[in-house]
Amino acid sequence: MLNFLKQLKWFFTTHKKTYILLFLTVILLNIIDVVPPYIIGKSIDFITEGSMSKELLMKIVLIFSIIIVISYTLSFVYSFLIWQGAYKVETIVRHRLMRKFLLMSPSFFEKNKTGDLMAKVTNDLKSVSNGVGIGIFTLLDSSAYMITLLITMMVVVSWKLTILAILPLPILIFVEVFIGKKIHLAHEKAQKSFGDMNNSVLEGVEGVRLTRSFVQEKDEYARFYDMTENYLQKFMKVVKLDSLFNPLTTIVVSVTFILSFGFGAYFINRGDITLGEFITFNIYLNMMIWPMFATGITIDLMQRGNASYTRINRVFNTEDDVIFGTNSDHKTDIGFESYGFTYPSSNHVNLKNITIDLKSGDTLGIVGRTGSGKTTLIKQLLMYYPFGEGKLQIDGVPISDISRSDFREKIGYVSQDNILFSKTVRENILFGKQDATEEELQEAIKMSALDQDIENMPNGLDTLVGEKGIALSGGQKQRVSIARSFIKNPDILILDDALSAVDAMTESRIIENIKATRQGKTTIIITHRLSAVQHADQILVLDKGEIVERGTHHELSNSGGWYQKQHEYYLSGGDDDEEL
């Protein structure tokens, strides 16, 4: 419980005025709440003594009315402040998580499943919010309430009777703390299981077409059923531990009442307390039931919140494995010198002895067999992964010294994944430049050869593309992605196998547009189609992470290597998408 409060010290410190006011409100509210039982006890003694008058009765009713109004007002303030804090911490942590996700490199997402990350932003955050909300509510209320009641019982009635009646209370607290530690471990396991199940749902929905095409519905359902049962078992362990609190509290409460009645009767017979005081004491003791139950609720919620925030903190404490500099004074001269790279999760070298000198404004073509390292080379330029061995420089400055955001601002990247948002065609294209004019938008559409397709769409540019562009064909998705980069008019345009789903005529039109409009700007084209890079100033052929050929189209077409064979195969009528 204390660890949970310690982990959220930054929040309570930032909002200390709110929680100081909250604490004062609780103290005042508890003082108000102990007054009515005292008045009831005194009233009984007045009636027993025969000294109750009409005027005195009216005063008592008036005091009760005032107490009700004050108690209601303080309860409102208390509840508002506590839930305000709960929703604030949930919002702040959610913003911090999203910011962390946006800044982390791809290797982070390779190590953390999407479903588990979503569980942290939803279920785990809700547990933290409940801990700060209901947890803090019950902690402040029960502890302040219990202390106020105990002091009042000792001062107003009898300190001896109070001590004797609450003898079982330390045992209750000790056992509840022990159960709370068990809940912490069980809840953390349950949340991890929920994350795995969440990830399974995402994979199932995304791959539903593949599942149906291979008739694997029953197997997928069986796999998911096992995961849900595993989560249920782990969650039920938490529920079983939760269920121990109420019976335990009921037993302790029963014992305290037995002790109260037994010792209370003895003290009345001795004349140490009056009947009215004994009734007042038992009302106070009855009021102690809530703090006793609330202690269990507090420990439960805070241990859950602590377990969840520990999981969230692991994300916050994860350092990005790509270190960036602040240098922003550079152009677009790109240089690799004896560069080598191995993926963090790989057991073999993915790039080796890469040397490239790409001047600003040149066009570079990169070709080679599937898996030869073409995309890996580009990911190093985009600063997606830790930097390898050798030199990778921009204008002679090591890329590790360059501001990532500033450099990426100069890049327009079309990946082979063609990621689209569940929005309209217009919104997906404008993602590349939010403040683009209508003229710039139409120019980007024309350059990407998307104009005729948009005319045939039901709502033109306002056509919804569906989740991940499901409403569009493969070629249309590629061209929307290309238009998104064209509208940015970047200093460096990178097309990573971005023309694989378009026909030869459309590809030719896009290439011609690139040649006509990107004079003086750097362009990098990765492709399996040699026709897309014939105009390049320099062409690289990669194989097993190494550059095995380099030159212009004319030079490579007569080199006797892989490029020449691929080109001759294409001229003979074969598809140069096919690999020899």
TrEMBL record:
One term under GO cellular component: plasma membrane
Topological category with respect to the lipid bilayer: Multi-pass membrane protein
SUPFAM superfamilies named in the record: ABC transporter transmembrane region, P-loop containing nucleoside triphosphate hydrolases
Pfam families: ABC_membrane, ABC_tran
Subcellular location: Cell membrane
Domain ABC transporter: 334-569
InterPro entries per record: AAA+_ATPase, ABC1_TM_dom, ABC1_TM_sf, ABC_transporter-like_ATP-bd, ABC_transporter-like_CS, P-loop_NTPase, Type_1_exporter
SMART domains, alphabetized: AAA
Transmembrane segments: 20-40, 60-83, 132-155, 161-179, 244-268
Main location: membrane
Any one Gene Ontology molecular-function term assigned to this protein's record: ATP hydrolysis activity
Residue ranges of domain ABC transmembrane type-1 in the record: 20-304
Origin superkingdom: Bacteria
PROSITE patterns in UniProt: ABC_TM1F (PS50929), ABC_TRANSPORTER_1 (PS00211), ABC_TRANSPORTER_2 (PS50893)
Keywords: ATP-binding, Cell membrane, Membrane, Nucleotide-binding, Transmembrane, Transmembrane helix, Transport
UniProt-recorded name of the protein: Putative multidrug resistance ABC transporter ATP-binding/permease protein YheI
Organism: Phocicoccus schoeneichii
